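Milestone M4 deliverable, item 7.
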Amino acid sequence: MIKLYDYPQCPFCRKVRIVLAEKGIEYERILVDLRKKEQKKEDFLKLNPYGKVPVLVDNDVLIYESSIINEYLDEKYPNPPLMPSNFAARAKVRILVDFCESHFYPPWYNIYREITFKTEHERNDDLIEKSKNEIKEHLYRLEQELEGKDYLAGSYSLADVTFTPKVAPFDSLGIQVDSELKNVRSWVEKIKSRPSYQAI
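Output delivered:
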């Protein structure tokens, strides 16, 4: 059976659990407590020298980095497919995954960290506001990407999976989606309503 070294609140772990749920794959979850720095212990570093979760072990195959794990799962367990069949469309999905992780995630994490780990009077309100404005700019790009489509690649894909753990908790983080971003608002509701998201 597949083993997933996991921390429940980690958005990178969540995106792997979404793919496992989409494909109906049974797996064993092994908790790595990030609060106790278990990801930096010698035994764990033998699995992932980066000292990060998630890590997936599939018999004698060991993989880390969430986007690589998800592509591995999609290739080994092709139904339902989470990448387009067209090579150019697959490249576009990878661009969107990178956009999420390299550009969308940093300001999102700024907000998440300030709200989750600090008391109200300890928070850096200027950083939160600056990060919200960055996210707003990124959402306008997603609005264009979603024009005429239900999901980022047309059908549900790894691009949507990657964004889900960041956009689904917008309300709890005080992040607003402008009313004029109708495509984004509809998309967020669609991905939140999927059984795979409900499962995690």
